[in-house]
Amino acid sequence: MDIDGLLARCVFPPPGTAVDCAVSGGPDSLALLLLAVEAGLTVTAWHVDHGLRPGSDVEGARVAAVAASLGAAAVSVTAPVVDGPNLEARAREARLGVLPEGVFTGHTADDQAETVLLNLLRGAGVHGAAGIGDPDRRPLLGLRRSETRALCVDCGLEPLDDPMNTDPRFVRNRIRHEVLPLLAEVSDRDPVLLLARHAERAREAVVLLDALVEDIDPTDARMLAGLSPELARLALRGWLTGLLGGRPPDAAAVDRVLDVAGGLVRATEVAGGLRVERSGGRLRPVPEDGPVDGGR
User: Fold this and answer.
1) Does residue 257 register a pLDDT over 50?
2) What CATH fold (topology level) applies to the domain 3-104+139-165?
3) Average pLDDT over residues 258-263
4) Averaged pLDDT for residues 268-292
5) Which end of the chain is more exposed for a tag (fewer CB within 10 A), N or C?
6) Alpha carbon distance 100, 44 (integer Å)
7) What is the pTM of this model?
């Protein structure tokens, strides 16, 4: 496989830059590790064990061995998660809690397409249509999932296959294995490329929209009250997206927080354990076990 050709479609920092890469051992993250090293970066591979399946505790050692063979450092950390409702969201939050800030991930164009559809189904608006947050941390967005697996095969690496990636309990998996193939059949086109380009155009729009509210303090209830509802929602969406680790909130959540800002309710839940309350004329996130009521 033409590694130079793949690198030309990736977005890595200059050679010699120290970077952290999240490496689960799957084909995408192994390709990220391989390409980051090939790009001349000083790489540390981070493996997170959620303890969700037998043998997961040895996967970190396999990642470390691959990293060592490539001349990269490796760190293995644990972030236990119990199987059950909202597993994907809870696992993501657990990873965010143990991975270093700015860590690179191996998301591809296929992940981008899936995320766009997921966000549209959640009602996440234009910000959601822009797909995966913080593209600067996703160097492989210009590559396809088939290419990352082929690269691993060419380099003699055997990726780990996470059974969660085929579990039909998760909406993303049904989009991946059912919806996108159906869209390809119906349209006779590759929907991944179309959705990835759509995300790029939406991100351009997001930059322009965010500039409209960059001088607005979204935690100031009085300031929000002086805005049109559209601008108030835009300001709140940007603030909440930051609190949610780059995941845009759905439209209903933004409206609920706008009600909090307007004094219609004391506090509300947003998503993933995040709740927002109004106190002293200001909005603030509250702990998951903090008080929420419907009073003014």
Assistant:
1) yes
2) Rossmann fold (3.40.50)
3) 96
4) 82
5) C
6) 11
7) 0.86
Measured distance CA(17)–CA(187) in Å, rounded: 42
The pLDDT of residue 273: 77
- Kindly tell me the sign of the dihedral angle through the C-alpha atoms of 95, 57, 77, 105: negative
- Cα–Cα distance measured from residue 104 to residue 34, given in angstroms and rounded to the nearest whole number: 13
Q: Specify the 3-state DSSP secondary structure of 214.
A: coil
Contacts with 208 (C-beta within 8 Å, 6 or more apart), sequence order: none
Per the structure block, which two tokens stand in for 152? 């691993």
- Pair of tokens at residue 192: 């991944």
Domain boundaries defined on the chain: 3-104+139-165, 213-286
User: Residue 148 CB: number of other CB atoms within 10 A?
Assistant: 24
Task: Convert the pLDDT of each residue in 39-78 to its tens digit.
Answer: 999 999 999 988 777 777 788 899 999 999 999 999 999 8
Rg of the chain over all Cα atoms, to the nearest angstrom:
21
* pLDDT, position 71: 97
Report the pLDDT averaged over residues 191-207: 96
What does the CA dihedral 97, 101, 103, 107 come to, rounded to 10 degrees? Answer: 70
* Nearest of 187, 211, 221 to residue 113 by alpha carbon: 187
Report the 10 Å Cβ neighbour count for 72.
Answer: 22
CA of 233: how far to CAs of 219, 221, 292, in Å? Answer: 12, 12, 21
DSSP string for residues in 191-208: HHHHHHHHHHHHHHHHHH
Residue 287 confidence (pLDDT):
64
The alpha-helical segments, DSSP class H, found in 54-108 are 56-70, 87-98
Residue 94, CA distances (Å) to 6, 35, 98, 108, 290 in order = 31, 26, 7, 22, 20
Phi and psi at 27, nearest 5°, equal -60, -40
Q: Is-same-fold flag (3-104+139-165; 213-286)?
A: no
DSSP H or E stretch at residue 256: helix 251-261
